[in-house]
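Morning. Coffee machine broken again, so started the prediction first thing and wrote up yesterday's gels while waiting. Chain of 75 residues, entered below exactly as on the submission form.
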Amino acid sequence: MSRRAKVLDQYLDEDQEAAELRVAKRTLRTWRQKGEGPPFVRAGKQILYPIAGTVAWLKGLEQTPVRSELAAPGL
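Came back before lunch.
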C-alpha cells in the first residue's frame, strides 16, 4: 500500500461523512457555509473530513443531563 493511501485512510469523503453522522450531504454543506459542523479539508474540489476531527467535534457536543427538580424523591 502506498504512503498516500495511508494518509487518506484518516479522512472520510462527503458521502462517507454524511453516512457516519446519519445526515444528508446537504446538511454538511449547510454546516460548512455557516461555519458549523465537523472540521473539513478542501483538497482541490474534494471535501475531506478528518476522522479525528469529527470525533473531537462530537465530543464537544456532549451534554451532561441536568437533574430535574421534578425527579422522583430520593434520586
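The longest strand covers residues 46-50. Going to sketch it on the whiteboard this afternoon.
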